[in-house]
């Protein structure tokens, strides 16, 4: 499973809000809702998040193996 928990920590460290993502990166409110719900987003969105927050991909997402 993909987790966006690193995104929220990175945003806190960089004093960014979801409003920052919408204004600076043109990230839609529906995409932000998907991120909050840990649903899938496009690689273009991941690229935009890294650019907005000036960070690496691992600062945005983490892979968590499913429990067997």
Describe the structure.
With 68 residues, this protein is mostly helical. It has a single domain (2-63), classed as 434 Repressor (Amino-terminal Domain) (Orthogonal Bundle), CATH 1.10.260. The chain is 53% helix and 6% strand. It has helices spanning 5-13, 18-25, 29-36, 43-53; strands at 2-3, 62-63. Strands 1-2 form a two-stranded antiparallel ribbon. The chain is globular and about 40 Å long. The protein starts with a strand and ends in a 5-residue tail after the last strand.
Quick recap:
The chain has helices at residues 5-13, 18-25, 29-36, 43-53; strands spanning 2-3, 62-63. With 68 residues, it is mainly α.
Compute the average pLDDT. Answer: 94
Number of helices: 4
Strand proportion: 5-15%
User: Which series of helices and strands comes N to C?
Assistant: EHHHHE
Large-scale geometry: globular
- As residue ranges, the low-confidence spans are none
Number of domains: 1
CATH architecture assignment name: Orthogonal Bundle
Helix content range of the residues, please? Answer: 40-55%
Structural class determined from secondary elements = mainly alpha
CATH class: Mainly Alpha
Radius of gyration from the CA trace?
Answer: 11 Å
Could you say what the CATH topology is called?
434 Repressor (Amino-terminal Domain)
Number of strands: 2
Strands of the widest sheet, in order across it, are: 1-2
| End-to-end distance | 12 Å
| Major β-sheet profile | 2 strands, antiparallel
């Amino acid at each position: 499973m993909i987790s966006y928990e690193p995104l929220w920590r990175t945003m806190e460290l960089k004093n960014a809000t979801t409003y920052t993502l919408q204004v600076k990166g043109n990230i839609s409110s529906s995409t932000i809702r998907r991120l909050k719900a840990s649903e899938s987003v496009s690689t273009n969105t991941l690229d935009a998040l890294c650019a907005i927050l000036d960070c690496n991909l691992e600062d945005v997402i983490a892979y968590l193996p499913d429990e067997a």
